[in-house]
Design goal:
- The chain folds into 3 domains: 62 residues, no CATH class; 258 residues, Type I PLP-dependent aspartate aminotransferase-like (Major domain) (Aspartate Aminotransferase, domain 2); 128 residues, Aspartate Aminotransferase, domain 1.
- The chain is globular, with a radius of gyration of 26 Å.
- By secondary structure, it is of the alpha/beta class.
- It contains 16 helices and 12 strands.
- Strands 1-7-6-5-4-2-3 form a 7-stranded mixed beta sheet, with helices on both faces.
- Bound molecules: pyridoxal-5'-phosphate.
Length: 490
């Protein structure tokens, strides 16, 4: 079934003199390129380009695209990343000329429809989060974290306070410490207790007048809602600090709990997770941030406002306290259009059902998986849970069974779950079915997982057995990718 064609480089398909186009004869006097361009803009040699026919190009890239997995082709239980189905209706609407062909330098008067959409999205996100001041600018969740921490820094500066520390639990996503550092803060890791909740004693030890922000992911990446969150926010607020909610897991609590109501002062959304935007190679994300009214003036500018007098929408530069732009123009607008469609399609009661179904699906999968893998944090979860393949390590002697199982899943046509995150669970496998999967799919996945867990160490260790690329060196691939063809790689 695999097409070996697709594993060749397009350069390897090249035949000298072959082409996919035929140009008409030139009907103006010919001039050499040297006469038209200055020497410093000219290359000494022609670029090495593949010479192929049109069908060869089409087949090459179409076949390449089938070597990958996607939510459109496979079940994709990637915990924390929320790989939910991307409704095609959203794609179609985002591609409408009236949205896709706008130029960001057009006059405000000529983009009233887009501004209205962005304005309403700000309002909807403000309502869903319980945090009314919104900026749509940040380009991803991590960027939202950074922007919000810059807002916090500006807020404290405005109050004449020096606060140097950002705290977050050990189950936090790696972007939390990275954002804290980039925003100029020192970062402190707070321990979790065995039950996965924040260790309040450890938090108390580190809280002080130098605490700027406590970042919490709730529900956490363990798929647990930390019911101490109100107490935590009181503790942090008592010290004059702010609470940041990492909103990557909002898929679990839409229409059920609002971060602003349980003590958060700032948060980001990941529309490419929670609101069905494509991501993971499928497109860029976005990271809108929502904050309390008192932090609002510091948000990145411009935001979109409505002028009652002229009955029109406009880009609002704010009152001079804004931290300024964090992204060119209005952010990744295409993703925001999709988020808008998703939210409007479901409506308030529909969003609540999304979360209820996501949580139900995760618990259903958990109820099966706990029979053959260890699930350290109990019998119930929110939208995701983390199983541990540590028992497989004991039984088989495999060094990294979570990785081996993940690779083996590819042979059975399933995308693996998130592995080795959070770091607090040994041989962790974080599974998030999402609300869009059927019982049959979840049953099939659980069956396969059970089969794999009982396979021989030999089979697991060398998996995957059926993919074009088997075990790439992931670190080198990420750090030193070869993106340019040279004769040497031939
Ligand atoms: C995905 C994720 C982020 C980062 O969001 P990006 O949009 O990928 O930058 C932060 N925290 C958690 C818990 C996440 O799952």
């Amino acid at each position: 079934m695999r097409n070996t064609h697709a594993t060749q480089l397009i350069f390897e398909l090249s035949t000298q003199g072959r082409t996919g186009v035929r140009l008409p004869d030139c009907d103006v006097p010919e001039q050499s390129i040297q006469q038209l361009l200055p020497d410093n803009l000219l290359q000494a040699d022609s670029p090495t380009l593949p010479e192929v026919t049109e069908p060869e190009v089409i087949r090459h890239f179409t076949n390449l695209s089938t070597l990958n997995m996607s939510v459109d082709t496979h079940y994709y239980p990637l915990g924390s990343c929320t790989m939910k189905y991307n409704p095609k209706r959203n794609e179609r609407i985002a591609a409408w000329d009236g949205f896709a062909q706008l130029h960001p330098y057009q006059s405000e008067a000529s983009i009233q429809g887009m501004l209205q959409l962005l304005f309403e999205l700000q309002q909807m996100l403000g309502e869903i989060s319980g945090l009314p001041a919104v900026s749509l600018q940040p380009a991803a969740g991590a960027h939202g974290e950074l922007a919000a921490l810059m807002v916090a820094a500006a807020y404290f500066k405005g109050r004449g306070e020096t606060r140097t520390k950002v705290l977050a639990p050990d189950s936090a996503h790696g972007t939390n410490p990275a954002s804290a550092r980039m925003a100029g803060f020192d970062f402190v890791t707070i321990k979790s207790k065995d039950d996965g909740r924040v260790d309040l004693d450890h938090l108390r030890e580190h809280l002080g007048s130098d605490t700027a922000v406590f970042m919490i992911t709730n529900p956490s990446t363990l798929g647990l809602f930390d019911d101490q969150v109100q107490e935590i926010s009181d503790m942090v607020h008592d010290q004059g600090g702010l609470i940041y909610l990492d909103g990557a897991n909002m898929n679990a609590i839409l229409g059920i709990a609002r971060p602003g109501d349980f003590g958060a002062d700032m948060m980001h959304f990941n529309p490419h997770k929670t609101f069905s935007g494509p991501h993971g190679g499928g497109g860029p994300g976005a990271g809108p941030i929502c904050v309390t009214d008192s932090l609002g003036p510091y948000l990145p500018s411009p935001t979109v406002s409505f002028c009652e007098q002229s009955q029109s929408y406009f880009l609002d530069a704010g009152d001079g306290q804004s931290i300024g732009r964090v992204r060119s123009f209005f952010g990744n607008v295409g993703v925001l259009v999709r988020a808008y469609c998703y939210i409007r399609t479901h409506g308030p009661d529909g969003l609540r059902r999304v979360s209820e179904t996501a949580v139900l699906n995760a618990n259903y999968l958990l109820s099966q998986v706990k029979d053959f893998l260890h699930v350290p944090h109990g019998d119930r979860c929110m939208h995701e849970f983390v199983a541990s393949a540590a028992p497989v390590k004991e039984a088989t002697g495999l060094k990294q069974p979570a990785m081996d199982i993940a690779k083996r899943l590819l042979d059975y046509g399933f995308h693996p779950p998130t592995v080795y995150f959070p770091l607090t669970v040994p041989e962790g496998m974080m599974m998030e079915p999402t609300e869009t999967e059927s019982k049959q799919t979840l049953d099939a996945f659980a069956d396969v997982l059970k089969t794999i867990v009982n396979e021989s160490a030999e089979t697991l260790e060398h998996a995957p057995h059926s993919t074009a690329i088997r075990r790439p060196d992931e670190v080198t691939a990420a750090r030193q990718p070869i993106v340019k063809w040279t004769e040497a790689t031939d």
